[in-house]
Design brief:
Elements: H1 6-43, H2 47-50, H3 55-63, E1 68-70, E2 74-77, E3 81-82, E4 88-94, E5 99-106, E6 113-118, E7 126-131, E8 137-145, E9 148-158
Parallel strand pairs: 1-9, 3-9
Antiparallel strand pairs: 2-4, 4-7, 5-6, 5-8, 8-9
Amino acid sequence: MIEFRSGDVARRVMLKGVAAVAGLACVGVVDAVRTPVCAADAAGWPAEAFKQKSEADVIKALYAGKTAAASDKVKLDAPEIAENGAVVPISVATDLPDVTSISVLVLENPYTLAAHYKLPAGTAPAVSNRLKMAKTTKVVALVEAGGALHRAEKEVKVTVGGCGG
């Protein structure tokens, strides 16, 4: 049989109360910080680019139709075979100077643009994500650096459907 002293019960009640108050305070702080940031990000959201269905249309919407040149300085890491198209890990990194954005395109998805990142000056030019892929297709990484557009691509075979089946 376990014996409880009155001090143990009082301490537990007090700790639960402190934890509840701290949790509510954190929710209020997170909400206060999150709201202005979300509103500011929405203004620069490239909504039209995410609606495009071809690589050329995405480049036109995001980069005013610049031509993307293949570059060995853009490192696209993606699996050769994705066993589950719902979660395909990819990463893009580069050592190019003055990188302002990185975009990831999945050419055979219903909407081509899968991810777009604007990078502030001084940010390490590397991103990673898990993408949903409808079927076997090329994944294209676009890196805007110094006003020029660079690209790398890799074919990813999908064995179990993600977006489309």
